[in-house]
Design goal:
Elements (H helix, E strand, L loop, with lengths): L15 H25 L5 H8 L1 H17 L3 H30 L14 H19 L1
Helix pairs in contact: 1-2, 1-3, 4-5
Length: 138
């Protein structure tokens, strides 16, 4: 049994450059490559499947790095992040199910609001919630 309390242990250092720049850029590059591959490869082909799944492991790596970085935050910053996510998650669900219902009703969103282009609309509630929470605790 370890006699050192968990709270006294320092979190493992991690590269903030990797977390803040390299991993998101890798995800963006893989997403752009996937979109290009889906566009130019024959639909339903094995290559199109590989292209479509290309950003998934990179996105999982991004999520892992975010969770790891969150564990290194102090209690106040964790609370701020939690409040931002508590607003963003339900708002993202509203955006997605609204888009889905509009699609089922025949409004397919050609060019302007098709599902892959909804990502910024899903991120906006998080940024809005983050601004509100930071304002509340400052």
């Amino acid at each position: 049994m370890n006699s050192v309390p968990t709270a006294d242990r320092a979190p493992k250092p991690h590269s903030s450059l990797s977390n803040s720049i390299v991993i998101p850029l890798a995800f963006a590059a893989s997403y752009i490559a996937a979109r290009w591959g889906i566009k130019v490869l024959p639909q339903g082909s094995r290559e199109a499947l590989v292209a479509a799944l290309l950003p998934v492991p990179v996105f999982a790596w991004l999520i892992y790095s975010i969770v790891r970085g969150t564990r290194a935050l102090d209690e106040l910053e964790r609370r701020i992040q939690l409040e931002a996510l508590a607003l963003a998650f339900p708002a993202a669900l509203v955006i997605l199910f609204t888009a889905g219902l509009l699609d089922l009703a025949g409004f397919h969103g050609e060019g302007n609001w098709d599902l892959p282009r909804l990502l910024p609309l899903v991120l906006l509630p998080y940024w809005f919630g983050l601004a509100l929470a930071r304002r509340r605790y400052s």
